[in-house]
Every structure is written in structure tokens, then in C-alpha cells.
Target: HTH araC/xylS-type domain-containing protein
Amino acid sequence: MTLIGPTPVHRAAAPSTIGSSLHAPFILDLPCGLNTKSFVAPRSDQLHGCFNEPDAILHCSIILSGACSMTTNGKSHHFQARDVILATLHQQTFSFENSDEFSALEIHVPGHFLKTMQLPVSEKIECQAVELQSKTFKAARELFLLSQNNSTGAASYTAPEQLIRFGLATTLLGYALTHTRPKAASPPPYSPIPLEKVRQALLQRYDRAPAITDLAQMCQVSPTRLKQAFKKQFGCGPYSFYQIHRMEHASRLLHSNSVTETAMELGYSNISHFSAAFQKQFGCTPSQWQHTMGTKPDITS
Model:
């Protein structure tokens, strides 16, 4: 989604500013011409520029938190957390906007690597949402965190460390290419259930999840059938969906609240339970999240 190579948008950044905005991502150079960029933007921001690669390069992007919009060739595209995006971009102007607390990982794949691996590449921008606990999202979070250990590139890593990062990047690319391929539609196994009504009920509160029996009664189906239908539609069960919604709200609260205040607002009486739930979703503790987003960490996490 952003640029590769020297451009007015990505200029040399002081080490202290790397990872603080879209203008200064963590950059990791990998074998075979691949590289990754890890973006962290605590505040909403905008970019305008031109992709200036001499040859078409595949951009594989995973939105880890927040949301963003990109306009190129007169078309606007909107993405949110857990979206996997594939785009082959070459000398195109663009504009880009992101929300608060935005983070994303991007892999740049050169044309010669695509040809060598005989990878199919579409000229269209393709997007597919993945589940929170999917292998794709887990690999993206791991590579995102590893890429922030050092901002000076491949030379600072040992050969085994470099292999780990390269392996994660190629594994993630394989998952992304698999997820974004069109799938044949299959008939629903059950008669229609008003799942949107269930989804809205789950989004109403942050401090207490509705009972699955109440949700099933709302739809006049059994709890088992509701959970199966909900997972098929949204990629996870009702409670997991509620927890994702709850923790995403927590990530916003942590920008201005302490860990303790955030846990209490979400209905947690045990801070360690809140910290464990947050770490399960984002791969880091609440205080580590505050540090990454540029806010003062709370010692209670």
C-alpha cells in the first residue's frame, strides 16, 4: 500500500522516529529481494504519492489493527483489521488514510521471485478477511513483532535469525495467496437465521456478553445450531466475536486510560485475566501495546 525505494514519502528517518508514523516504518530486507515494512500509527494520518517501482511488485498487506482507505486509479478501497490484501502496483499515484491506532505489515515481492516460484498474480486489488486465530494472522503478528527488534535491516541479524524471518514472510505470502483466491459458492446447510440481529446484540456492550441461550431464543434455534451458523458467517463463534469486539475497544481505551482503568471498564475484576485476554488477541500485553502506540505504559499488566 505504501512505497518501496527512495521517494518523497519514505525519506530517511532518525532511529528515534522509526515506527512512529506511516512515514517511518520498520524496514526489513530479506533474501531474494523480498522486504517487509511494519507500520505503526497511533494517530490518523494521510499519505499522497506515487508508486515508483521500475517493475511491477506484489504488495501483500495484512491489517493488524485499525482501518484504512486507499484510492488509486480513481477507485477507493476500504480495509479493516484482519484483512489480507494483494495488489500488484507499478507507477501509480495514490492517496492513503488510516485510523487511529493503526498497524499493518506489508511484504514486497519482486517480479523475478514471482516468476521463479510461478506464482499467479492478478492485476486487481484482492482482499480477504481472515480469522483472528488463523495461521495467516498469527504468522503476520509474529513477523510484525520480529521486524521491530531492529530497524537497520538484514545485516544486524544472524543467518538463522534471517532464515526465520524469511521463512515467515514466504509462509505468510503462501497463506495470503491461498486465502484470496475465489472460492466456489456452496449452499447454506441451514435455513436462514437472523444472524445480523445476533451480531448487533453482541456489539451493544463491552462489560458483559449476552448468554448464548438468550441469543438462540432470540432466533428460535438451538444454541448449537446458532453457534455453527454464526461461525460459518463470521469466521468465529459468538463469544469469540464478542471478545474480539471487546479487546479492540480495549486497545482504543488504552490510549488514554491505564491498564487497571481499562480492565474495570470492560467488567474485569481480575487484571491478569484482562491482560491474558488482550495478549491472546494482539500477541502482547496491554502495557506493551501502550509502549508500541507511544503512550505511557501502565505497570499493572
